[in-house]
Every structure is written in structure tokens, then in C-alpha cells.
Write a structure and sequence with these properties.
2 domains; 10 helices; two-stranded parallel ribbon; mainly alpha; flat
């Protein structure tokens, strides 16, 4: 039985992986057409001036940016593909699956846009604030693209915390009461994670992630409680 479950899981994972790769490649190829305007927009948003040290660096950086853009713009398709391929195993009701997809997409884009418009400009401004007459920042375009894309996706994934907690609750792995009792450990984890993810060591930029993460944690707890209450009502009626 366990062997069959493992085979089913691997088969579904393979299908999802292949479809996601194809989707990202297609959207990434289209995004490459707009990669230079995207790079210019990113530079204007962060008020940065970057340099390239080898002739093909700008080209490869735009390719890298197109790949990240492909993953960014195809995220709704990725979520839907994941749901359609795994719904037979996850065993969620169609309505719950639809809400899960919408919730996941909204949280991801909320996190990425929050990072793009608020965290990146202030974080990069702090990091290049050490410039003076004898110390100048000369950031390569490749390092800049990688840094910004990594930060944006890190925030997008981090904002999925309520969805993760709700899935854990639906699988019955952890109770909301247990997480609520360990709230102080959750706060400690959020603080450490924020310090690692944010680009600067100052408290201000760290709190830009820590505060939303804690709010999302509390939202996740609330969703877990509602789910457990709903499940208890269903069990009592059976």
C-alpha cells in the first residue's frame, strides 16, 4: 500500500514538474522580449546604477531576468496545475480547492509586490549607504538581478504561511491550540527568519518582514481554528 502511494506521489510530482517547466519556459520566452524594459524599471524602482564587467553579462542577465519573470507571471498557472494534478490525492472539495488556489495566488503576489515597492528600495538604499569619497559601490548587473529576484521570490513564498498552516490543519498534523501555546517560539522563528531573509541587518528592514509574517501567522491560526471547528461539526453530524 505504501509502495503504491509512493509511486502515485512520484508520478504526480513528475507530471507537475514537467508541466511547470513547460509553462515557465513559454512565459519566460515571451518575457525575454520585454526583459530590457523590465531591467530598466527595476533599476528605476531601486534608484540603482549598475555596471557590466564582461561583454555578454547584460545578455545573460536579461535571460536570467526573463526566467524569473516567467516564473513570476506563470505562478497562477503553476498553482492551478498543481491543484488539478494532485486533487485526487489531496482530496479537497472543489470549492475548497478553488479557494486554496485563489488564496495562494493572492498571498504570493502580495508578498512579491510588498518586497518590490517597499523592501527592495529601502534595503538597497541602506546597503549602498556606505558610499563616500573613497568608497564607491560598483554593482554588477548580474549580481543585482539575482539579488532582487531572490528577494522578491523569498517574500512571495514567505507570505504563503497561512496556506501552509491551513494545509497542516486539514491533514491533522498539528492543532491550532498547540501552535497557539508555542506562540513565543513562533515569534522567535519569525524574527530569525526575517533577519536571514531581509537584505540588511538593521531593525527597520527586518521588521518590514517580521510584522507581516506575524500577522500572517495569526491569520493562519484563525483559519486553523475555523477548520477544526468545521471538522468537529461534521464529525458530530455523522
Amino acid at each position: 500500500m505504501e509502495r503504491e502511494k509512493l509511486i502515485t506521489f512520484l508520478t504526480i510530482t513528475k507530471k507537475i514538474f514537467l508541466k511547470v517547466i513547460v509553462t515557465v519556459v513559454i512565459v519566460g520566452t515571451i518575457s525575454f522580449i520585454f526583459s530590457k524594459p523590465l531591467l530598466i524599471k527595476l533599476l528605476k524602482n531601486t534608484e540603482m546604477k549598475v555596471y557590466y564587467y564582461t561583454l555578454p553579462e547584460v545578455f545573460f542577465s536579461t535571460v536570467e531576468l526573463a526566467i524569473f519573470a516567467g516564473a513570476f507571471f506563470s505562478f497562477p498557472f503553476i498553482v492551478i496545475i498543481g491543484w488539478l494534478e494532485s486533487r485526487s490525492v489531496v482530496k479537497l472539495k472543489p470549492r475548497d480547492g478553488l479557494l486554496f488556489c485563489i488564496f495562494t495566488i493572492v498571498l504570493f503576489y502580495t508578498g512579491t509586490l510588498f518586497c518590490y515597492f517597499i523592501v527592495l528600495p529601502s534595503g538597497i538604499k541602506f546597503l549602498v549607504g556606505y558610499e563616500n569619497d573613497v568608497l564607491k559601490a560598483m554593482i554588477s548587473v548580474e549580481k543585482f538581478v539575482t539579488f532582487c529576484a531572490t528577494m522578491v521570490f523569498a517574500f512571495g513564498i514567505t507570505f504563503e504561511l497561512p496556506v501552509i498552516l491551513l494545509l497542516i490543519s486539514k491533514k491533522g498534523l498539528v492543532k491550532a491550540k498547540t501552535l497557539a501555546k508555542g506562540r513565543r517560539f513562533a515569534i522567535l522563528f519569525i524574527t530569525i527568519a526575517s533577519a536571514v531573509i531581509t537584505p540588511t541587518p538593521d531593525v527597520y528592514n527586518m521588521m518590514l518582514l517580521a510584522v507581516p509574517m506575524y500577522i500572517l501567522f495569526e491569520i493562519g491560526l484563525l483559519l486553523m481554528k475555523l477548520n477544526e471547528r468545521k471538522q468537529n461539526i461534521v464529525d458530530q453530524t455523522q
